[in-house]
Specification:
By secondary structure, the protein is mainly alpha-helical. About 55% of the residues lie in helices and about 5% in strands. It has nine helices and two strands. Strands 1-2 form a two-stranded antiparallel ribbon. Helix 1 packs antiparallel against helix 2, helix 2 packs antiparallel against helix 4 and helix 2 packs across helix 6. It starts with 9 loop residues before the first helix and ends with a helix.
């Protein structure tokens, strides 16, 4: 299990979005899509402008235990779609959404995505933040809103619901809550 955590504070999420938006639009969109879609970083980095043209992102999940990988569909919210429209307005359809400055049309690397998130984490004094934090943040808030671990497990492609809960930090939340309420 990764040692990175979801971001559980909505105000902090907004502060990080504002910070990234002011610093670099591409990095802001990466964070915005990561926390609003639950896509794995490998899948986010493979997206091209054409993949976010409509109201759904349709993609093949990179990491899966299944031999035949069905296409995944993620509906975008109005707010995310508005930001994407503005970001992709003058970009060619074949351009990577998170284009690197190196090479002709190459996406940023996973390592670069990590550097981007770590820089933002340091700005806000966060320790356990990495590329999985975006997906974990989405999963955490999805679970908190709908309280349906089976649905979340399926959407995340996990084999076991207990793994899903650990992945999004729910089991640690529960332990912390119980310990803080135990007074002897």
């Amino acid at each position: 299990m990764n040692l990175v955590e979801p971001i559980r504070d909505k105000e902090l999420i907004q502060d990080i979005k504002d910070y990234l938006k002011q610093k670099n639009r591409r990095n802001y969109i990466l964070f915005l899509l990561g926390i609003n879609t639950g896509m794995a970083i490998a899948d986010l980095l493979k997206l091209k402008v054409r993949d976010v043209d409509g109201w759904h992102i349709v993609y093949k999940r990179q990491k899966t235990l299944k031999k035949r990988r069905p296409a995944q569909r993620i509906k975008l919210s109005n707010a995310v779609k508005k930001e994407l429209r503005e970001y992709t307005k003058d970009k060619p359809k074949d351009e990577f959404l998170f284009k690197s400055r190196n090479g002709k049309n190459k996406p940023i690397t996973r390592a670069m995505a990590y550097v981007i998130l770590r820089e933002a984490a340091e700005e806000f004094g966060l320790e356990a933040i990495g590329t999985h934090s975006m997906r974990k943040t989405w999963g955490y808030f999805y679970y908190k809103k709908f309280n349906d671990v089976a649905d979340l497990q399926g959407q995340m492609g996990h084999a076991d619901p207990s793994y899903t809960l650990r992945y999004i930090g729910i089991s640690q939340d529960e332990k912390d809550k119980r310990r803080s309420n135990l007074v002897l």
